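Progress note, project year one: complex with glutamic acid.
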Amino acid sequence: MYRGRFAPSPTGPLHFGSLVAAVASYLEAKIHHGEWLLRIEDLDQPRTMPGAAESILRTLEAWGFEWDGPVVYQSRRQDLYAAALSGLQESGLVYACGCTRKEIADSAIHGIEGAIYPGTCRNGLPSGKSARAWRVRTENRIIGFDDAIQGYIAQNLELDIGDFVLKRADGLYAYQLAVVVDDAEQGITDIVRGADLLDSTPRQIYLQSLMGFPAIRYAHIPIVTNQQGEKLSKQTLAKTLDDRYPQTQLWLALDYLGQSPPAELMNASIGTLWQWMLTHWKLENIPHIRHAKIQPEPSLS
Ligand code: GLU
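Model obtained:
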């Protein structure tokens, strides 16, 4: 049984970049006669925009997406993350860290995603320090996986990333922990999402293995960027999708994903377009690249 998901963060309304991820994950689930679940990743409350989750659901509905089961909200699942963290604490795989950002920055070398934690608190909190965050120990070995679009990806977590945070100094559970717990708890078999998360995947595979969760298959689609090469996001002022013109935007999303939709379908009804998508969708046609510019940024609003 195939089970996929779409997991937007409600930091703002949907933009074209998130639509592309939704389309790709949805069509993959459908052509495998699988399920498609929707999870709102609103753990990081300070970054959550009031009303964004409702707006995302409205837009998905307007575009004709149909999800299976109830929508899951990460903000209501703290107990699950707490239980997962205490399991890891019991097995000695995580440790309390009392370092401030500045202390880390002063003594760290840089890896794939910024500072590699220098290991100051790895063998116990130095005297005078109290626990701020919880980190998981990484190992000096290669973690690799075959991504259905990006090919073989490998990292040495200890050398490339360093011991990473599972619970932050502000008390919030980290994305890496929550996503792994949720995907396992929801029985996700396949993840199709943006390639901005490619570098997070070895961390997630590592956590899955520590917690004894089943492996997941991955496909990372190219990230949509604006003409300056920046990822479309609220920060880069990506335009909000206009729910009044779903078929044009869906057509553009298919085009971006290498599916070559016929020009006449641009003005077809949304039902006709979905029918075409469900019979013509091929993951193999997605360009094997990490990002691609879109010009001009689609929006009819
Ligand atoms: N919530 C993440 C985002 O919107 C996606 C997480 C995931 O697909 O694993 O970027």
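Residues 7-9, 41, 179, 193, 197 surround glutamic acid (CB under 6 Å).
The domain at 78-177 is CATH 3.40.50.620 (Rossmann fold).
No further modelling is planned for this target in the current period.
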